[in-house]
Amino acid sequence: MPGAWRGAAVRAGVGALLVLWILAPLLPPALWSVADTWQAPAVLPDGYSGTAFTVLLQPGTVRAALTSLLLGGCVALVATPLGLLGALAARALPGRRGRAVDLILLAPLAIPPFALVMGVNVTLLRLHVPAFAGVALILVVTALPYTSFMFRSALTAYEGRFDDVARTLGAAPHQILRHVRSPLLAAATTRAFFLAFLVGWGDYITTLLAGGGRLSTLPTLLGAAASSPGSEQLTAVLSLGVVIPPLVVLAALALPTVMGSLSRREGP
């Protein structure tokens, strides 16, 4: 028991350090968001004020947040099933053909975002594609490496015999998809959807260039505030508005896993 307790304490300590490592970068913008005055060499703000948070309730900011939410949702809804199809194709094709599919799916990671946007933007303009649709299409390509990788990792542990057993029991293809594949790939689907949503929610370069200034999102508002002198408090508030919602969603998604792990440890 002492050894078990020590192991649990070490794991808890490492987990706490990782959480601090992730949350530490949020401390400066959190202080700037309530800093009325903060001049060097003071370590902490000289005065505090929360009036800058009212910008989050302004109609322009609310519309930008809804656009970011819609953009992230559209990217996730398209990139998630495409990533699954790509992963299934890479798994089903033998040898070099499967590796070629993997290479194609991961290729957007090797292309600088600026080059990708400028290369596609001319075509979108000639085809008169609306700004929102054009940005969403480019971001789907950007998100595909993440969604396909999530499903590719999950499929390595997926046994095709599950489908064979279901067929033996008389299950139709749609029943196999609903009752066998979907539950077994549910965790990977959630992770892939979340990563694709983040690509759309937090994008700046693609939205700015392909949107042509016609698409206002939270990151574009943040970029405009950051480029204006003397707007440190506004920039910090908008930064928190971009970062905190995904962290809350991530915590909500991770909570069932954590609770399930704790219940299994406490079980007989």
UniProtKB/TrEMBL annotation:
Keyword Cell membrane: yes
Coiled-coil regions listed: none
Domain ABC transmembrane type-1: 65-255
Entry keywords, A to Z: Cell inner membrane, Cell membrane, Membrane, Transmembrane, Transmembrane helix, Transport
UniProt topology in membrane: Multi-pass membrane protein
Parts of the chain that traverse the membrane: 12-35, 64-88, 100-125, 131-151, 192-213, 233-255
Statement: the UniProt record of this protein carries the keyword Repeat: no
Range of residues in the leader sequence: none
GO BP annotations, alphabetical order: transmembrane transport
Compartment(s): Cell inner membrane; Cell membrane
Gene Ontology CC: one annotated term: plasma membrane
Family of the protein in this entry: Belongs to the binding-protein-dependent transport system permease family.
Name of this chain's protein: ABC transporter permease subunit
UniProt source species: Arthrobacter echini
